[in-house]
């Protein structure tokens, strides 16, 4: 098995955490815990986790949109260097909760900074590193936000609190990204029951990496 970089994307409440938990457990059963790494953006190491706290602090209502975009890119850079590159060197399967597509959708479209501008900004951070496979969990914004409101109201972050119009812009940006990069980004209908979503995600991963979930 050689290193594999798989990212998971989706609007808030799409079910990434729930799906990735199951995918990680099943891969660990197949290959052993030391061959699989779950990690998340922004975060995954002590520097990026500090940036995460600044980004999601509900008191930071006056944060400028470009500041926000730069902080996400900075957290991404550190995460690549501290987590992703070493895990690739160690031939692990990397399950990464969000990556550059989230910045394009949330900051580029949601914050009106421009998708191309955010892509350009992030080139310095990612230095050419893209996942081989991105699983995009698609769910209508209303459904995702309802799930969060019903089950996770204690953990609502600064971005979850944005208005519905913001979340619509984010989702449609993800859909455009998927259409522009159909080889890398695979769409899974995440409005289905969780077990079916997990089964569909496994199928998508297996299609790219036949040795996984065979
Ligand atoms: N397919 C599903 N059907 C119904 N409920 C679901 C489904 N997937 C996840 N949920 C529930 O929706 C809520 C949000 O799920 P989860 O935390 O996995 O989403 P997420 O994409 O990681 O969210 P966020 O982007 O905000 O971190 C949880 O309470 C979870 O139990
Ligand atoms: C990487 C990244 C994330 N975001 C947003 C998307 C979500 O609202 C939060 C992350 O929370 P989650 O529980 O980990 O899904 O941050 C963003 O706006 N831009 C980014 O680049």
From TrEMBL:
Q: What's a single GO MF annotation on this record?
A: dTMP kinase activity
Alphabetical list of InterPro entries matching this protein: Thymidylate_kin-like_dom, Thymidylate_kin_CS, Thymidylate_kinase
| Reactions the enzyme catalyzes | dTMP + ATP = dTDP + ADP
Pfam families linked: Thymidylate_kin
Residues the record lists as binding ATP:
10-17
PROSITE patterns for this protein? THYMIDYLATE_KINASE (PS01331)
Question: E.C. number, please?
Answer: 2.7.4.9
| Alphabetical UniProt keywords | ATP-binding, Kinase, Nucleotide biosynthesis, Nucleotide-binding, Transferase
Q: Which residues are in the Thymidylate kinase-like domain?
A: 8-200
PANTHER family for the chain? THYMIDYLATE KINASE, UMP-CMP KINASE 2, MITOCHONDRIAL
What is the annotated role of this protein in its UniProt record? Phosphorylation of dTMP to form dTDP in both de novo and salvage pathways of dTTP synthesis.
Indicate the family of this protein: Belongs to the thymidylate kinase family.
Please state what the protein is called: Thymidylate kinase
Phylogenetic lineage: Bacteria, Bacillati, Bacillota, Bacilli, Lactobacillales
